[in-house]
Design the sequence.
């Protein structure tokens, strides 16, 4: 409710911009968390889908004049398709092998977009045509509209996660993350489940890619396939608490706010300070709460419950 | 030689053992019996310094073990064969045994001890190069026991050494443990196979829910109605 | 009536080691068969081969007439073969209930139904008091119970148990034996690997003895304990001397 | 043509030696402490700066400064392990990865703050010289780096396999509690391993200095290659990392020559992905060697 | 409140962290210097001597941050204009934001895309295509039959510059024997130079950033390859290049947006900058001083701090003297697409540890040395 009204309350464009970033990265984190958090498949190559989504919709928009709204969905499906071969390859690997293979696929994809210059503007990239206010083409005059779009995405991501978490699929994912052999032994088709969740995760990540390009008005391989996005997706989830519904959101709120505040306090001083402080804070959080902040909330909640009669505590 | 006085330990907030007092004299074989979760393994872990004490004293030859860092304890000649075949899975059988003699007091006679271990467990000799993690359950158990022997211990603590061993192998193992005991090594044995254990040890303690509830000579315990019904299934 | 499990000419090599050689045996429906043999005889490997965790070099395994060699473990499980692992593999971060529900989802994807089934299995193995405990906090014994419950929740027709009674004291073994008996009464076919002869003698109708990957004997329990070959390779003279009464 | 190929192979071999130093450090940390150290590249950077400042202010030859950079980084490694890494060791590898990631970010920006973004180069008598054989050439500085890299890798391998401390490292990595029961101080062993790995990074830095520039981001250039090499050569496997590094150097060089100068990395990634498709455990097989 | 005239806020977007921090920090120093000069000279007189207030923001060499920071600068402060982000990807984003917010941005970036359909974006210096022509013409000066190997980093900067080279070479009578993008930030130039060697080129155009270029130059020396090197702009024309390659730099040619010896004004600013930083004023930073003065000039003419008015003033600006005209060609007048009608690059050569302007004749301060 507050979230819905927020743009009306906050007149400051800068603050709204931070909220948009928070929602966007929360959404990316939520998409990542489905696979990385629940099934513990630590992917650091999710930007591959982000970039594919971004490029699909931009190519459709610029070369064929198709609305990014349609492009966004198309991008999602392209990412879903792309996740199949990548998944086929990477899911045979476990632990750090998997992680590094995902990094390599995302990097390779970037290099390919750089190499084939005639296909999608190569390294030079392109800007998004300025259409003024054109909601059908995902261009808005006010920040508030962007805010609502990305809020919608986040809600979508959370609803999907919530549904999955509560269903058999959620149990299967956690089981795979805990011990794949044991999961197989009780009839869990681990490769298939991983493939499915990877497709969903890729689809959602691609949606974020389209939004991102429309929001920053620019696309090039370095941006669309930036390793930082892969890192950020995982980082917000880990700081917030992987495998929890709200973890990525909590993590993003914390990290993005910190970084925005640091940027505005220290951004104009000599190079390096704000990121130095940021990384120190990051280290402190990880050392203090290796399992993420949701663990802290849960502990507090548990302590609260412990003070109540025991029968209240049985799960539904 | 080894003395525990009023030792208590917890896991998180859950008490695992409380006020445990036991003694093992030099050259003596002592048993530690009790149901699942009674706290037998925890007692051994406390001696080895793997769990922190909340109260009590553990002394070995007059040295306060709790004040030593855990890795110094084996140097005193205390070997602990942990519960559940915890071998180093990605090292070969031979390397596992070598590591067993890591402390200086054992290193000098490493080759000789290893001969002995291979003699007791010929299967290990056949599989020197096999990765320990790919050995069968029982083979791993043999390796764990063998690795404990590599320390040339003065006190040998065994946590369920017969777990997963075939009956023939159990016989051999108990025979050898008895022999080692006869040669002067003190033994602290945790074993679910209570009748077997009682035939090997001189004395035993019975733990229930983390407390010592009975103690005595092994034949006394073997004849006790309580022990018979609770642990011998008679 | 087709036999529950027909193993024929099963082989598996690890490098130069022939872990399982030409093993064949048959388990009739609703029968409890014990697989015994000295350490490293190939019992666990046989389980791995039957349930698809290792691929057999050659040989065939028919479960209710259907070939399972070549199938993935989850397919084998879906056919109704559930197993436990010699070293328990609980889903540590999940509660006992969630662990078992995960098994139950194989037959029923509805959360509420799965929870019902899971509770029943948990009760059956006697873990009801620990329903909400995270699996990693259980004792090894309880973890094995959990593993049984999880396997039962998949509603198998054949249950393969690998040393689920190791580390139990005689009194506890008697309880466990009763449990297996109850499973059998419910119509399950059971293959059990165990070194505790007290338990084997109590539950098994039929015993298959492996040594060095080969089947060296097969028959009714009474015959097996008197078989000199089995005594030499497995039971040891101590057992024969004690006339089978002692705990071993 | 033949000459071009031969030269491409020489170039690849030489740079592969440097990749090896970085990747062996990564693989050592993984093999023992079981974490993927994302900050390894930044420690190479520190090694480079140490050599740079010694050369610029004290006239010390970068190769000699190995004697300073290696011990210094060893010490840093011990401290990092003791005060940071130790606290997040556990079954869950996510916090560990991100701790080292944050560390990398920290070191990088600290360097930026202290040393600015400027590139810094050291010129030695051998920096820009090469041995010429017919049409082929071997840059002297790189040759020296390659030889020292090989010697250090060999020494490390021997250490891990023939000494008890080496075996103790592997034991502690596999089961800390049981290692303690063997009398192994796993904490100290981990510190030594981390220190040794960073010392290798320091060596890489010093060896690079005669022909490469130091700047705050320099580590990132090498670390990606190092990761690919350790996975290609099986994590934790020193010999595997060495072989994979050299292979990658050659593949990259040949890729640049025959596929395109912007395709060296694509070739390397393709090699990685293909290898993993057929040998998911990497070239080194499944274990630490 | 409206745009009060006691101070005029100007935004500066530069990466002082991240991979482009190197140049970004120099730019910040130069921008501060220019603002101080203007303020000391009495500020904006038509606004009653209002002082310029420079608000710098670090865009971290990162696109998202650039988007956010541009927004933050514009909405958080009453800005009259912005300058910044020499790097083309970052500039393109900043420019898009400025267009939508209707705040003029003046930039040293040479990307041709900046001149497509933009109203608030001004580019006083040479465009990528012009750089190419100048480079080709310089090649003709050193050899009668230039056989050029073109290697360029696979970034926006590299590809846009090299495309010009490929298109214009036939017309300028230059043969291109090798045309290869390479992955920026390599670990070893050996393989690349091996390829150049095999191509039989007698001249090498390298469109590269500093570190790659250092390695390329050093490797060329090791191989013993005898080619005339033209390092283009970017990493080649900054003080660090010489510091890193030393004597090897002597005689190498390049092209720049701006050079510190082009005119007495340039030299004066250069001296002032040297006093602060110890290094000579390199192209982006020098260009930035000029840009700041262009903004001051526009403010002067607009007599208003309103960004719309500043934009009007910029679009009608025409200066050919003073610091605002410190651009190769000596005159600044923007065309409707934001290009400077008189913009052109300056050819430079490393001579005795300094960067001398050698081409074209009008801007040359020293003769081109043929090695
Ligand atoms: N890691 C742990 N975390 C929490 N509780 C534990 C842990 N290990 C043991 N416990 C608890 O401590 C108590 C004593 O356990 P311990 O392992 O010492 O028993 P035991 O007598 O060795 O039993 P067993 O026969 O099963 O080996 C048990 O209630 C057990 O649940
Ligand atoms: N992956 C492997 N690589 C090499 N050898 C193996 C591997 N797995 C099992 N073995 C060997 O195969 C033989 C059979 O092992 P298996 O685990 O089946 O024995 P088991 O009958 O279950 O014995 P136990 O009663 O001790 O559990 C053993 O000697 C073991 O060392
Ligand atoms: Mg125990
Ligand atoms: Mg077994």
Sequence:
């Amino acid at each position: 409710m507050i979230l819905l009204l927020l743009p009306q309350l906050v007149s400051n464009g800068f603050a709204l911009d931070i909220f948009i970033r928070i929602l966007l990265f929360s959404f990316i984190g939520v998409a990542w968390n489905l696979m990385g958090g629940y099934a513990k498949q630590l992917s650091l190559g999710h930007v591959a889908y982000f970039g594919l989504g971004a490029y699909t919709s931009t190519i459709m928009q610029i070369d064929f004049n198709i609305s990014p709204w349609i492009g966004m969905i198309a991008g999602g499906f392209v990412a879903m398709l792309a996740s199949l071969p990548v998944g086929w390859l990477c899911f045979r690997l476990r632990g750090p092998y998997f992680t590094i293979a995902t990094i390599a696929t995302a990097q390779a994809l970037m290099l390919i977009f750089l190499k084939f210059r005639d296909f999608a503007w190569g390294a030079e990239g392109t800007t998004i045509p300025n259409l003024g206010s054109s909601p059908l083409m995902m261009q808005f005059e006010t920040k508030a509209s962007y805010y609502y779009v990305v809020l919608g995405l986040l809600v979508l991501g959370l609803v999907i996660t919530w549904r999955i978490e509560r269903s058999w699929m959620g149990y299967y994912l956690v089981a795979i993350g805990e011990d794949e052999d044991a999961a197989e032994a009780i009839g869990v088709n681990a490769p298939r489940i991983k493939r499915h969740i990877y497709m969903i995760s890729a689809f959602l990540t691609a949606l974020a890619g389209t939004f991102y390009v429309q929001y920053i008005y620019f696309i090039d391989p370095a941006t669309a396939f930036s390793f930082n996005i892969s890192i950020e997706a995982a980082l917000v989830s880990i700081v917030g608490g992987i495998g929890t519904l709200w973890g990525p959101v909590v993590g993003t709120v914390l990290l993005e706010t910190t970084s925005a505040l640091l940027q505005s306090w220290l951004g104009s001083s000599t190079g390096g300070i704000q990121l130095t402080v940021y990384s120190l804070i990051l280290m402190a959080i990880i050392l203090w709460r290796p399992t993420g902040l949701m663990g802290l909330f849960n502990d507090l909640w548990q302590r609260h419950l412990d003070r109540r009669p025991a029968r209240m505590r049985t799960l539904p | 030689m080894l003395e525990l006085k009023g030792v208590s330990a917890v896991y998180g907030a859950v008490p695992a053992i409380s006020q445990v007092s036991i003694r093992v004299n030099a050259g003596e074989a002592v048993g530690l019996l009790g149901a699942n979760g009674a706290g037998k393994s925890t007692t051994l872990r406390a001696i080895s310094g793997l769990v922190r004490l909340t109260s009590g004293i553990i002394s070995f030859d007059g040295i306060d073990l709790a004040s030593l860092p855990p890795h110094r304890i084996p140097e005193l000649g205390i070997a602990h064969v942990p519960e559940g075949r915890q071998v180093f899975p990605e090292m070969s059988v031979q390397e596992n045994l070598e590591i067993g003699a890591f402390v200086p007091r054992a290193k000098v006679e490493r080759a000789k001890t290893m001969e002995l271990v291979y003699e007791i467990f010929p299967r290990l000799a056949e599989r020197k190069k096999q990765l320990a993690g790919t050995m069968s359950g029982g083979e791993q158990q043999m390796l764990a026991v063998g690795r404990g022997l590599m320390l040339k211990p003065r006190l040998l603590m065994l946590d369920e050494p017969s777990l997963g061993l075939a009956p023939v192998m159990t016989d051999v193992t108990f025979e050898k443990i008895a022999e080692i005991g006869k040669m002067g090594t003190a033994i602290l044995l945790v074993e679910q196979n209570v009748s077997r254990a009682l035939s090997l040890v001189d004395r035993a303690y019975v733990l229930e829910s983390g407390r010592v509830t009975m103690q005595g000579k092994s034949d006394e315990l073997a004849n006790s109605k309580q022990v018979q019904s609770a642990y011998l299934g008679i | 009536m087709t036999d529950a499990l027909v193993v024929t000419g099963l082989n598996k090599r690890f490098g130069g080691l022939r872990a399982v050689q030409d093993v064949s045996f048959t388990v009739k429906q609703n029968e409890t068969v014990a697989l015994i043999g000295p350490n490293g005889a190939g019992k666990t490997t046989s389980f791995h081969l039957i349930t698809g965790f290792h691929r057999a070099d050659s040989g065939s395994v028919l479960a209710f007439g259907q070939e399972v060699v070549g199938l993935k473990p989850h397919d084998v499980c879906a056919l109704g073969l559930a197993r436990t692992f010699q070293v328990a593999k609980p889903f540590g971060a999940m509660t006992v209930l969630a662990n078992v529900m995960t098994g139950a989802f194989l037959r029923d994807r509805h959360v509420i139904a799965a929870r019902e089934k899971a509770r029943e299995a948990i009760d059956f193995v006697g873990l009801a008091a620990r329903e909400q405990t995270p699996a990693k906090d259980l004792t090894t014994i309880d973890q094995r119970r959990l593993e049984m419950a999880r396997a039962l929740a998949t509603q198998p027709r054949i249950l393969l148990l690998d040393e689920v009674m190791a580390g139990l004291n005689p009194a506890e073994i008697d309880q466990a034996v009763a449990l297996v008996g109850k499973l059998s009464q419910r119509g399950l076919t059971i293959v059990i690997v165990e070194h505790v002869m007290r338990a084997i003698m109590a539950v098994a109708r039929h015993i298959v003895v492996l040594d060095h990957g080969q089947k060296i004997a097969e028959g009714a329990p009474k015959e097996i304990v008197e078989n000199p070959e089995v005594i030499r390779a497995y039971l040891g003279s101590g057992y024969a001397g004690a006339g089978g009464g002692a705990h071993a | 043509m033949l000459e071009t190929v031969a030269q491409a192979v020489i170039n690849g071999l030489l740079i592969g030696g440097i990749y090896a130093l970085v990747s062996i450090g990564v693989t050592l940390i993984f093999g023992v402490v079981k974490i993927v150290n994302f900050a390894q590249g930044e420690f190479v950077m520190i090694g480079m700066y140490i050599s740079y400042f010694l050369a610029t202010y004290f006239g010390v030859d970068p190769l000699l400064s190995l004697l300073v950079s290696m011990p210094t980084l060893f010490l840093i490694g011990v401290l990092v392990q003791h005060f940071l890494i130790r606290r997040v060791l556990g079954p869950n590898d996510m916090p560990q990865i991100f701790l080292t990631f944050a560390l990398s970010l920290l070191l990088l920006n600290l360097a930026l703050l202290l040393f600015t973004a400027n590139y810094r180069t050291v010129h030695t008598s051998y920096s820009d010289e090469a041995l010429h054989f017919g049409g082929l050439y071997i840059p002297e500085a790189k040759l020296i780096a390659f030889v020292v890299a090989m010697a250090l890798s060999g020494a490390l391998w021997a250490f891990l396999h023939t000494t008890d401390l080496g075996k103790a490292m592997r034991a502690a990595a596999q089961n800390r509690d049981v290692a303690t029961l063997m009398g192994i101080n796993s904490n100290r062993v981990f510190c030594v391993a981390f220190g040794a790995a960073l010392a290798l990074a320091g060596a890489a830095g010093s060896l690079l200095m005669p022909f490469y520039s130091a700047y705050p981001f320099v580590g990132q250039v090498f670390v990606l290659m190092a990761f690919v090499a350790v996975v290609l050569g099986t994590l934790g496997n020193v010999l595997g990392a060495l072989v994979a590094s050299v292979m990658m150097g050659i593949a990259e060089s040949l890729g640049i020559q025959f596929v395109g100068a912007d395709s060296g990395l694509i070739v390397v990634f393709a090699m990685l992905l293909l290898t993993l498709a057929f040998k998911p455990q990497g070239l080194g097989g499944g274990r630490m060697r | 409140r409206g745009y009060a005239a006691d101070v005029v806020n100007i935004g500066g977007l530069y990466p002082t962290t991240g991979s482009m921090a190197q140049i970004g920090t120099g730019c910040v120093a130069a921008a501060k210097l220019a603002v101080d000069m203007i303020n000391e000279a009495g500020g904006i007189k038509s606004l009653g001597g209002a002082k310029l207030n420079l608000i710098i923001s670090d865009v971290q060499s990162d696109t998202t941050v650039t988007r956010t920071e541009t927004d933050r600068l514009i909405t958080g402060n009453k800005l009259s204009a912005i300058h910044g982000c020499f790097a083309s990807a970052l500039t393109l984003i900043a420019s898009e934001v400025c267009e939508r917010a209707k705040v003029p941005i003046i930039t040293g970036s040479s990307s041709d895309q900046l001149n497509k359909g933009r109203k608030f974006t001004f580019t006083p210096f040479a465009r990528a295509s012009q750089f190419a022509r100048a480079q080709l013409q310089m090649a003709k000066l050193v050899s009668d039959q230039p056989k050029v190997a073109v290697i360029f980093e696979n970034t926006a900067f590299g590809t846009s510059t090299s495309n010009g080279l490929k298109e214009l070479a036939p017309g300028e009578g230059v043969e291109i024997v090798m045309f290869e993008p390479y992955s920026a930030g390599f670990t070893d130039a050996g393989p690349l130079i091996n390829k150049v060697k095999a191509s039989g080129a007698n001249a090498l155009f390298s469109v590269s950033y500093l570190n790659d270029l250092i390695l390329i130059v050093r490797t060329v020396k090791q191989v013993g390859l005898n080619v005339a090197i033209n390092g283009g702009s970017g990493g080649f024309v900054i003080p660090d290049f010489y510091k890193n390659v030393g004597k090897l730099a002597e005689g190498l040619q390049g092209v720049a947006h701006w050079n510190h010896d082009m005119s007495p004004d340039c030299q004066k600013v250069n001296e002032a900058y040297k006093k602060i930083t110890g290094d000579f004023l390199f192209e982006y930073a020098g260009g930035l001083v000029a840009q700041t003065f262009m903004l001051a000039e526009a403010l002067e003419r607009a007599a208003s701090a309103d960004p719309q008015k500043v934009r009007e003033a910029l679009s009608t600006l025409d200066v050919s003297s003073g610091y605002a005209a410190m651009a190769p060609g000596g005159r600044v007048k923007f065309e409707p697409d934001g290009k400077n009608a008189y913009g052109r690059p300056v050819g430079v050569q490393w001579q005795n540890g300094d960067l001398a302007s050698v081409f074209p004749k009008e801007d040359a301060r020293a003769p081109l040395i043929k090695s």
Summary: Chain A has 15 helices and two strands. The pocket of adenosine-5'-triphosphate (ligand 2) is lined by residues B 130, 134-139, 164; C 14, 17, 19, 37, 39-45, 86 (CB under 6 Å). The radius of gyration of chain A is 20 Å.
